[in-house]
Amino acid sequence: MDMILILTILVVVFALAFDFINGFHDTANAIATSVSTRALKPRTAILMAAAMNFVGALTFTGVAKTITKDIVDPFLLENGSLVILAALVSAIIWNLVTWYFGIPSSSSHALIGSIAGAAIAAAGFGILNYSGFIKIIQALILSPVIALVGGFIVMTILRALLKNRNLFKANKRIRYMQIGTAAIQSFTHGTNDAQKAMGIITMALIAAELQTSDDIQLWVRIAAATSMGIGTSIGGYKIIKTVGGKIMKIRPIHGIAADLNSAAIIFGATLLHLPVSTTHVISSSIMGVGSAQRLKGVKWGVAQTIVLTWVITMPISAVVAAIVYKTLALFL
């Protein structure tokens, strides 16, 4: 069998593995607040999230096309299949390491940093599509800032609306509403995160000259959506614990404010065809909500650890991907 075809098959397998890992790594964020407030039992929340992620993943393709062509041009990339395989191996390693330690790191940062690092190792800095790459970086940087401010605003509005109501009774009603907001958030997660693997597979198909456009084939969409859905059904309890309890003590009113805010931002990014880190957005929303409630109520030490992980993810992933590429190139 031709080596390029073998590499392309490996890319598809590793891309689906990345989506699978992304499912239990990142989807935990989408349901963390509803589980921590006991609006949903963990298993019920995970199964619901799996179904909604699957539906969301099949609905849009704009983000996938951005991943396909805006970091590097797959039509110009030599050894493209090997570059993409190295990027996937690097992103998977980082996701597994951060999952093991229960750190809500960004799969998006890991994947994008890995693609850039492997491509630079293969063809130098000139291979990057700087206009598209900078646009993606801007979205990744701005989205958590917007989420932080938005969480603060949404929580402030909710507090004003519920000012003269019995907070215990209000929280009881809101807990039921969280089922809906958790479902919406899981859907928006699927519309953005699952598309990243679709974009990677499409890059590999173009690099192997198996397709000539950036259209996302139906089998790619179904395979990526299914992989993420299965991964979600397994769940990531360590990350649920970090996001749902270690940042701040979450009440139902906090959960619904964070869910609505982060779902709106993620879905807005999807409509703009921009990949964002769902981890960043959700964690930042919780921090914003906590700040509106009581500034000292946010455990800023934990938040600082999360932010530090966000900062180092992309450069570390890029370096790891470059090393993996050079290692694979020696043998392949």
TrEMBL record:
UniProt KW Transferase keyword: no
Residues spanning the membrane: 46-64, 76-97, 109-128, 140-162, 218-240, 260-282, 302-325
Coiled coil feature spans: none
Keywords carried by this UniProt record: Membrane, Transmembrane, Transmembrane helix, Transport
Pfam families xref list: PHO4
Cellular component, GO annotation: membrane
Compartments where located: Membrane
GO biological process assignments: phosphate ion transmembrane transport
Membrane topology (UniProt): Multi-pass membrane protein
Name the UniProt record assigns to this protein: Phosphate transporter
Origin organism lineage: Bacteria, Bacillati, Bacillota, Bacilli, Bacillales
